[in-house]
Amino acid sequence: MTNSDAAISSRGSRNTEMMFPTARGRVRLGTLNNLRWMAVIGQSTALILVYFGLGYALPLTLCATAIGASAILNLALSVAYPATRRLHAREATAFLAYDILQLAALLYLTGGVTNPFSLLFVAPVVISAATLELADTLLLATIAFVAISFLVEFHRPLPWRPDEVFTLPPMYVFGIWASLIAGMGFTSIYAYRTASESTRMADALSATQLALARADRLAALGALAAAAAHELGTPLGTIAVVAHELARETPPDAPHAEDFLLLRAEAERCRKILTRLAQPDDAVIGATNHLPLGALLDDIAEPHRGLDLEIVIEAQAGTAPKVWRVPEVSYGLNNLVENATDFAVEKIRLVARWDAKSITVDVIDDGPGFSPEILERIGDPYVTSRPRAKTTVKDLAERDHQEGMGLGFFIAKTLLEQTGASVSARNAPDGGALVRVVWPKGAIDGETAPNKEA
After folding, report:
1. In the chain, what percentage of residues exceed pLDDT 70?
2. Which residue among 65, 340, 363, 397 is least crowded, i.e. fewest CB within 10 A of its CB?
3. How far is 314 from 295, CA to CA, in rounded Å?
């Protein structure tokens, strides 16, 4: 295996792992340690300010012990492990659970939920929601819920002026409890959804890059095959000449006459194979050439014919523009056609139009079209809610779930946009789904091929 093969294989393996939720459950130890040091500094500052600055009475020794426990834990972890160590989900959950319990101990000594710093219960749960699994977050949220509820009834008095007694009405304390629970829930849900969408987007982009890398590898293999064919042409020609001379000089009834004829035929066969390798088929994904738009669409549609579906290419009258067949265009349009074959009943139309400002390609199927709720999110990774077409009574009876365009459409959209295209989707006026790809003039029909980095 070459270095490039190994790199792509490793990249594909990592990408496969990222597709599953377990990829979220890895947090750097240094990150949690730094956050805990911030908590230690903040708690120490508040303790010193309240006790020495304001002169409020509080159990200084017990509070300092709770804060010192966090400092000792951080020092022990820093000595035992490198800061770059990735924690497993269970380890990270355990450390965050400790932070919740340590905060609960401090608040028990300093007024319970009436202490303004009870808001910090939200922090460990939100950190978990942004980095760990849903089950881990629910576990931490449960621990925080129990701790908050416990502190409503059981806690030492809030540090206050010696000559005053600070009390809050029970209904107000209940309001604090409710606000903490609601705030923890809303912020955690928001953090979880945001992190999940970011992770899914990153995973989908990785899949897009992997698909394009594979297409580039095919192009490289085609160039290698052409070079090999050129280098092998000379020795093979020599073999063919020698075989021809031996066959001509050997009597027909000689023992090796048939062998010489076979050698000559096989040499000729090898020559034809090398000729094809030296001029690789334009249909190979990754080939870069300049061809009419209609020919490009015909090549893209060809692999999908023979699936009991009619694929029709419709182009406006006139001379079609010549476009560059780069991997992004070929792979992107191929994905759109492949998605259309999944949902079409009988027919798919590829409609090509052009003018002085743009080139447009519509991919239209006669399937059920997009459901209304998906149209706003079409193009996001893993959006799958367009129902598949069913063509028999048995199929209609079995249609109990929804499937639709997901990662494939996202990859197609991303690749096509790299060539300057804009991609949109909607339901066709006469039924079915319509995906429209529009390139500005010169994007794929200019003098040079589109820049992949665009």
Report:
1. 76
2. 397
3. 12
| The two three-digit tokens of residue 397, written as one number | 């009876």
Give per-residue pLDDT as tens, 392-445.
434 433 433 334 445 677 778 888 888 889 999 899 988 889 999 999 998 888
Strands 358-365 and 433-440: antiparallel
Tokens of 45: 């500052």
Max CA-CA distance within the chain?
129
Do residue 183 and residue 47 come from a single domain? yes
Q: What is the CATH number of the domain that holds 361?
A: 3.30.565.10
**Domain span including residue 252:** 215-278
Element (H, E) at 432: none
Give residue-wise pLDDT tens across range 77-121: 999 988 888 888 899 999 999 999 999 999 999 999 999 999 999
Nearest 5°: CA angle at 221, between 295 and 19?
85
User: CA–CA separation, 275 vs 288, rounded Å?
Assistant: 19
Assigned domain for 11 exists: no
State whether 296 and 377 are in the same domain.
yes
Distance CA 212, CA 411 (A): 9
Neighbours of 231 (CB within 10 A): 11
Q: Which of 278, 313, 330 is the last residue of a domain?
A: 278
Give dist(CA 435, CA 332) in Å, integer.
12
